[in-house]
Predict the 3D structure of the following.
Amino acid sequence: MKARYEHIINTLPEHVALIAVSKYYPASAISELYELGQRSFGESRASELKTKAESLPKDIEWHFIGHLQRSNVKHVVPYVSLIHSVDNLRLLEEINKQAMKLNRTTDCLLQIRIAKEETKTGFTMLECRNMLEAGDWKGLQNIRICGLMCMATNTDDDQQIREEFSSVNSFFQEIKSSHFSKEDCFCIRSWGMSDDRRIAIEEGSNMVRIGTALFGEH
Ligand SMILES: *Cc1c(COP(=O)(O)O)cnc(C)c1O
């Protein structure tokens, strides 16, 4: 794992943050990377996040990257530093409510559905634009929208992957200029996983979420 970690760290440009996606890997694998200096880890299930967050060092920054049900928000908010997978306004409202109870502000990304597969969740760009224009989110004092997340289609066609990331990158610039000011820190572009991280970075990513290339195949 040390060699894989060093390879990834050494090939990531400085402005790109690495989220080590530790879902389904044991706490011991997280500890191993923690010892090497990694502090940001991504999980996709509420119960697994809770178990790991409660047993591992408190200075780990946990990122929630999986599909999030409203009923699970209360189990996630106490532990996370960033939720990548917000895909509807009601979810954002629930995150706001739970964050308010804990007297904190929870950072969120809006997940954009760009991949062609039916199974991928997220806002379409149109839905996202409409939600932002409607403006209800502006009253939510305990969340902060910090950027966008997306997953490309799972394909060998690099050109298709590139076009998908590129269109989300343009969309990011569009909504940043129409809905956010400099003070809002709308600045996170979370795209790129083990297999498509190089293309993602070329197409504007500044946060990659990497599982198998770090931890190995399950
Ligand atoms: C599992 C997962 C990843 C990591 O995928 P790898 O291909 O293992 O790097 C990244 N993002 C999300 C949303 C995931 O669910």
